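Section 4.2 – Deliverable D4.2 (structural model, holo form)

The reporting period included a commitment to supply a predicted holo structure for the target in complex with iron/sulfur cluster. Inputs used:
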Amino acid sequence: MLYRTSTASTSKVFNLTLLSLLSRLKDRIIGVFYLPRLRTVVPLLDYPGRLPRPFFYPIEEFELSNAIEMTCLKCGACCETRSGVFAFENELLEIEQYIGNRVNVEHCENIRLLTGESTRVCTIASGKCPFYDVDTRQCAIHRVKPIICRVFFCTLVGKKGSRVYVKVRGPQGAPLYVEWTSDIATLRKKVRSFSLRLAARSSF
Ligand code: SF4
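Output (structure tokens):
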């Protein structure tokens, strides 16, 4: 069965609960998609059982065929300048096992989730992520990267089949995806320059 997640809430605990649930469903996430009917970008999952509301909602197959899958062009701007990357305690353990070393974190906090569970969430970096390789523009822990890196990334570019789409501002500020017909290298440069400008502005 196909599910979409709820959209992000103004409640930090709600968002962390959703992320914590998603972190245990990593293998079921089929991607992050723009759904035209809802005019929003959300992760989609393929899951055989029932997933709990208000975190997950079933959707029809046709929504997937209309959807645009968000695509990382590996411009590097997010991971390089304002990653804000954080991990739940179980994710940190997984990363530490993968790299064979401790992860230095900026700070941690204990959170009581809406499921009643308690967990610890640690900020790894607010700026450049220590796992980002500037030369290759690759994530060194791609296989075990935290759930936040799986489901929350650039929404500027998407793909549907062989077509590439770029986000523009639509009516009432809603996102609108229009087809990009020029080359990808130019698009990557534009996305990187836009993201770096955004990062510079938000650091003031
Ligand atoms: S863990 Fe990987 S994807 Fe996440 S911010 Fe760091 S380099 Fe980027």
